[in-house]
C-alpha cells in the first residue's frame, strides 16, 4: 500500500477513534451560541436583529475554526501518531522474535558442531 493511502487511512481511523476520546463539540458550540442569541436578541433593536444574528453566527463559526476544529485535528493527529508508533513497535517485536529464533538456531548449530 502506498504511503499516501496509509496516511489517509490512519487519518480517517484516527478521526473515528477520536470520537471515543471526545465526542464532536461543534453541536455543543452551536447550541451555546444559539442559547446566547436567545438571551440577547430582545436587547437588540428590531431593525438590527438580522445583522446581529449574522454576527453571532459568524462568531460561532470562527470559534469552531480556531477552537474545536483545531483541537479535533490535533487529537486525530495524536491518534494517528500513536497508531504509527504501535505499528512500528509491533514490527520491532517481530524483528526481535525473528532474531531470538535465529540466535536459538545458531546456538543449536554451535552445540552440534562442538559435540561433533
From TrEMBL:
Keywords: Coiled coil. The keyword Coiled coil applies. Residues 82-116 form a coiled coil. It comes from the Bacteria. The keyword Coiled coil applies. This is Uncharacterized protein.
